[in-house]
């Protein structure tokens, strides 16, 4: 058992507990802060009244944390229910997937056994058409990539010009400020004469 001497509102207390010394200091610090806060807000309170009000505030904090904890547990339970529902849905989808895989296997066997030359010619024509479309898409993509590189270069130049303009504006602001100061000094000088 740990015994720790702590100060609460300037009074020393010996705390005993199974917890670590650091934890006991943290608890005492929390209570000390609450008591001092209440005494600062109402200097006419006695120490015992401040202690009672601190205890009420601490219990209020505890109840609020308990409510947050219960809400958290409820959310965890909701998530667990959703997870169970998702697991059931996944199991169902796995069954459907297995059925589709079996059906796909049957279709592949039928396709292998199909020697219909017209069907094969259709598929070759379709494949040729897809290859042509793919070549067009690749050319278009290359053009877009080239245009993208050009736009990045233009963007970089514009950013440089913008930065230069910002520096010029700052420089002009400094000159304006210096001129205003000089003008004010000159006005003062003229007024004094």
From TrEMBL:
It is found in: Cytoplasm. InterPro entries: Bac_CellDiv_Activator (IPR053712), Cell_div_ZapA-like (IPR007838), Cell_div_ZapA-like_sf (IPR036192). Keywords: Cell cycle, Cell division, Coiled coil, Cytoplasm, Septation. The keyword Cytoplasm applies. The keyword DNA-binding does not apply. Residues 62-161 form a coiled coil. GO terms for biological process: division septum assembly; FtsZ-dependent cytokinesis; septin ring assembly. One of its GO terms (cellular component) is cytosol. Gene3D superfamilies: 6.10.250.790. Its main location: cytoplasm. Homodimer. Interacts with FtsZ. Activator of cell division through the inhibition of FtsZ GTPase activity, therefore promoting FtsZ assembly into bundles of protofilaments necessary for the formation of the division Z ring. It is recruited early at mid-cell but it is not essential for cell division. This is Cell division protein ZapA. It comes from Clostridium magnum DSM 2767.
